[in-house]
Design brief:
Main location: membrane
Membrane topology: Multi-pass membrane protein
Number of helices: 10
Keywords: Cell membrane, Membrane, Transmembrane, Transmembrane helix
Largest sheet: 4 strands, antiparallel
Order of helices and strands: HHHHHHHHEHEEHE
Number of domains: 2
Strand content: 5-15%
Pfam families: DUF2179, YitT_membrane
Strand order of the largest sheet: 2-3-1-4
Number of strands: 4
Subcellular location: Cell membrane
Shape: elongated
Length: about 280
């Protein structure tokens, strides 16, 4: 599958998950956990004749106009696609599958399930170097004109939305929303870390040459070779070190077991890898 098409497919899946979490758990429970969706919920509460879907469409258009005017062409097609896809899905859910009351009566359950599903979806979207727009645009504007860090700017934007929610839905729901913002951040970071997790492997084997050849020719990965001296044997031996994904490591491990059952293998997880063959900033 074409890499670009695959990326947009993942963005679509992520946007759908975000919409499900918001539409079926957070919105019916009046849990405005920040973001442009929370702002749309507040507008809907103040002006019931304006649906959440319509409010999202108008807010997204306004924010993108502000973004283009103040920041310029800093918004990629993926962000525009994700933003309006999410808005469209929520509009469809809001129009054709409206919920008069939450699926479950327990606010904590609605908060946990809603934030979990939408947080996973946002993590998937962010992992494709995209965002769902909304308060991300506000954060970038604050960053440009007031030199406030992006993370803090996003927190400020969400804090303002949740504070407004306190006046619309009451202080209790606002407190739940604050918790939602916190847990949402943790979930997003965990999802992104899971996608980007790599394996660092060091192999001490008498079949060093064969292992190097397998890594380079069959896994299409690089390797670094060290010469180490054993404390017990007092002999020198080559250590093969390489970084790869989990599927590649399973293949390598099975190969090494086949050619040298006595090979000494050390494995560790790597949260992020930058450079040739991996992501670059």
């Amino acid at each position: 599958m074409n890499q670009t098409l695959k990326s947009y497919l993942w963005i679509s899946i992520g946007s759908l998950l975000v919409a499900i979490g918001i539409s079926f758990f957070l919105i019916p429970a009046n849990l405005a956990t920040g973001g442009i969706t929370g702002l749309a919920m507040i507008i809907n509460a103040l002006f019931p004749q304006i649906s959440i879907g319509n409010a999202l469409i108008v807010l997204n258009i306004l924010l993108f106009i502000i973004g283009f005017l103040t920041i310029g062409k800093a918004f990629g097609g993926k962000t525009i696609y994700a933003s309006f896809l999410l808005t469209g899905i929520i509009y469809i859910f809001d129009t054709f599958f409206p919920l008069a009351s939450p699926l479950v009566t327990d606010l904590i359950v609605n908060l946990i399930v809603g934030v979990l599903i939408s947080g996973i979806g946002l993590g998937v979207v962010f992992n494709q170097n995209a965002s769902t727009g909304g308060t991300d645009i506000i954060a970038k504007v604050l960053n440009k004109f007031f030199n406030i860090e992006i993370g803090k700017s996003l927190l400020i934007a969400d804090f303002v939305v949740v504070s407004l929610a306190a006046f619309s839905f009451g202080i209790e729901l606002a407190i739940y929303a604050f918790l939602g913002i916190f847990f949402n951040g943790l979930i997003i970071d965990s999802v992104i870390e899971g996608f980007n997790l790599k394996i660092s492997v060091s192999i001490n084997s008498v079949k060093s040459e064969e292992i190097q050849t397998y890594i380079v020719n069959h896994l299409d990965r690089g390797a670094t070779i060290y010469t180490a001296r054993g404390a017990y044997s007092k002999s020198n031996r080559e250590i093969v070190n390489s970084v790869m994904n989990k599927k590649e490591f399973v293949k390598l491990k099975n190969h090494v077991k086949t050619i040298d059952p006595n090979a000494f293998i050390m494995v560790s997880s790597v949260r992020e890898v930058l450079g040739e063959g991996f992501y670059s900033h």
